[in-house]
Design goal:
Blueprint lengths: L3 H19 L29 E10 L19 E5 L5 E8 L2 E10 L5 E8 L2 E10 L5 E8 L4 E9 L5 E8 L2 E10 L5 E8 L4 E9 L5 E7 L5 E9 L5 E7 L5 E9 L6 E7 L6 E9 L5 E8 L2 E13 L5 E8 L2 E12 L2
Antiparallel strand pairs: 1-2, 1-22, 2-3, 3-4, 4-5, 5-6, 6-7, 7-8, 8-9, 9-10, 10-11, 11-12, 12-13, 13-14, 14-15, 15-16, 16-17, 17-18, 18-19, 19-20, 20-21, 21-22
């Protein structure tokens, strides 16, 4: 019988696979990256206009008696953000704040091929963890090593690639002992057709199989357990513009157990309605409706959920700089101003 620690580690590995396989609607080809460190967003990906060098955002509570001034208490947690970028728009530092004090700093190192090679986490000016990414001549990540503040290896992931640069195998080591592994198969178009995950003893834990439309978009993902029995399958549906509009999860007997729907604003990529439903068509789990202004920023959101039947409505008003980036964002809840987010940007030119 396996120990609890071994079981927990295997379960964590399985969860990573499942999250990457199911989080992105119709994005089955993201699965080989599930063990890699998450890439930081680029300046363009964050929606900034112009060559942004640095940005910081702080959120304040607003008192009804003093709407014209930025006063109140700094909202703690993830509502504070600061980052810097290189001239190509790649993030080189990211700061996480706790209230008004610096908490953690992440530093990102890129090589001459614009590939991430190192992540350093510092807390109170002390290095806490380092992630080193070793790449081959094709700039493919062949080893990802996690080290503590002393440089001791905590965890390591090795990857093997085929002649077409396709990922064939991943192995995870904890303290130099194999914890789990995964292998991948592809079709002629280099699309993943199967992924098999095994535990530290080489036993099959879970298998994912994928099918695609002639256009290349994923149509179905089937999940099989360690006995080769179907656990569930997910179907992906697209509109005439090839945008993912529906994702339906079925149990082994073909009965739908959950569905996710997206509705877009015209021909763009802005999702104006996102709905998640349970096994019964009328069982609403979550719905979010959004509107956007001509600048592409969200101006309102309305959410309803299973545990929050009362609709929650937020509206947002912006003040912009000369480049079209917003500098101030006021958050209204049910028509009452609650927060004001203040942003400072610097540019390379």
């Amino acid at each position: 019988m396996k120990g609890l620690a071994e079981y927990a580690e295997m379960k964590r590995f399985i969860v990573l696979v499942a999250l990457m396989a199911a989080t992105y609607m119709g994005d089955a080809q993201s699965v080989p990256d599930y063990l890699l460190p998450t890439l930081p967003p680029t300046a363009e990906g964050l929606g900034y206009r112009g060559a942004v060098k640095s940005v910081s955002e702080f959120q304040y509570e607003i008192t009804v008696a003093d709407l014209g001034e930025i006063e109140g208490i700094l909202v703690p947690g993830g509502n504070h953000f600061a980052a810097s970028f290189n001239k190509k728009g790649f993030m080189i530092t990211q700061v996480v704040y706790n209230n008004d004090s610096q908490f953690d700093t992440y530093s990102y190192t890129w090589n001459n091929f614009d590939q991430l090679t190192r992540i350093t986490l510092m807390h109170d000016d002390t290095v806490r963890e380092t992630v080193s990414i070793r790449r081959n001549t094709a700039q493919l990540p062949v080893a990802i090593t996690y080290m503590d503040e002393t440089g001791a290896i905590l965890r390591k992931i090795e990857q093997k690639f085929g002649s077409r640069n396709e990922l064939l195998h991943q192995t995870e080591y904890n303290q130099n002992i194999i914890a789990a592994s995964a292998s991948f198969e592809y079709n002629d178009q280099l699309q993943i057709t199967a992924m098999r995950q095994k535990n530290q003893d080489g036993e099959l834990v879970v298998e994912y199989r994928y099918s695609y439309a002639p256009s290349g978009q994923p149509l179905q993902m089937s999940v099989y357990d360690s006995f080769g029995l179907l656990a569930n399958r997910t179907e992906f549906i697209y509109d005439s513009l090839h945008r993912p509009v529906e994702e339906v999860v079925y149990n082994p007997y073909g009965k739908p157990i959950q569905s996710m729907n997206k509705r877009y604003d015209g021909t763009g990529d802005k999702v104006i309605e996102y709905t998640v439903r349970g096994a019964q068509p009328d069982r609403l789990i979550h719905r979010e409706i959004s509107t956007y202004n001509p600048e592409g920023y969200c101006t309102s959101t309305k959410t309803t959920s299973l545990h929050q039947p009362q609709r929650e409505a937020w509206n947002f008003k912006y003040r912009y700089d000369e480049r079209g980036n917003w500098l101030e964002k006021t958050h209204f809840k049910q028509g009452i101003p609650f927060y004001r987010t203040v942003r400072t940007l610097t540019y390379f030119d």
